Amino acid sequence: MRGLRSLLVLLVIALPLGWYAYRDSTKPADSGEPKRDKVFSVEADKIQEISLKSESGERTRLQKSGTEWKIVAPAGAPPDSNEISSVASGIASLEMQSVVDENPPDLKDYGLAQPRIEVAFKADGKEQTLLIGQKTPPGTDLYAKRAGETKVFLIPGHLESAFNKTTFDLRDKAVVKIDRDKLDALEFTAGDKTSRFAKPAGEWQIAAPVQARADFSAIEGIVTRLTGLQMKSVVDAPEADGKKYALDKPAATIKFGSGSSQATLVVGGPAGEGTVYARDMSRPAIVTIESSVLDELKKDPSEYRQKDLFDARGFNATRLEIVRAGQTFAFEKTKVKNKEGQDEEKWRQLTPQARELDQPAFDTLLSALTGIRATGFVDAAAAKGLSTPELSATIKFDEGKKEEKVVLAKSGTDGFASRTGEPGAAKVDASAIDAVTKALQELK
Fold it and tell me: Of 297, 296, 257, 252, which is closest to residue 270 (Cα–Cα)?
């Protein structure tokens, strides 16, 4: 009986302690960060209008229609929705770092008698305004207050760049509006060089000055650069004759094709500070862009050509035929059963005699051949030795659906290659041709 009473006493003591322990475990952990008050009780998506006055005194008024923002004053500038949305998000998330003075005797001390920056907005029919003054002496925070109130508080200094926006900052800065995914033709002329590219079957090809395979990364690079061009400024009041901008005799002309539609951008003379004038011919505005784009447009067209002589690789090649010194060597990939009874791919020689091959030795031959790259391109007349070549190689790949043939020749220390279906000839390292002939001989 005494033991039962003791157990009851322990339970009476333990239950409250357990409750307090449970309650404390469910409390949110104290982060140690002081709780800060929001400047405005508003959600970003509820904001319908924003009016900004930048430090320069320029005013911009923005308005949301549905989910899309537009610049209503000054009119005519297309908006950058991401920039405007970041302003709305900044307003909604803005917190007071601390209160400086509930009722300051003189707002001049904080630069708020004539605020540098003003951020006004409307949400749910209510208008509110944030006034921003000077930076604190350390420069880490900004003095601010709400319009109609006396209390001065601090907001983080990095928010100056978020709210100190001009109309240009808030506008869409794309020089030309191009849907990159639908782009299927690109042409640009700079100086006496014209490069034209087409995308007939989902892959870029060079259409001019020669018809040839294109270097995917090089084409993608220039396409990305040109479709992503951003204006650095807009010429406010362009001169009527336009001679100042040299757009009548442009340094470069770029044409973008997308189906039946086309956009043209002309690049003119220098505008100072590393920029040049430019104009989308479908719009009257003259803008400036980085002058470095001209250097890319002036590249020799051959830099956009595919440097690999073969598209085939060891993993997708199915047949190889090499003709050297009047003798033909034919090889084919076949499927055989290994010791475990599993399918395995092996290369076999078919001619001049059928035989099994040392697979690593053949891999060396195929790798040496498909690894040859052009170091440059020349006219066929400038290529020597192609009439009496060192060897020719024909490869079938992609399950035999594709075939490519390349003729390799040497002239002293120079190497040349001619690919069927492509103009001119490629310059190659003679040592690369030697590596192929050596691998073929060692295969014997």
Answer: 252
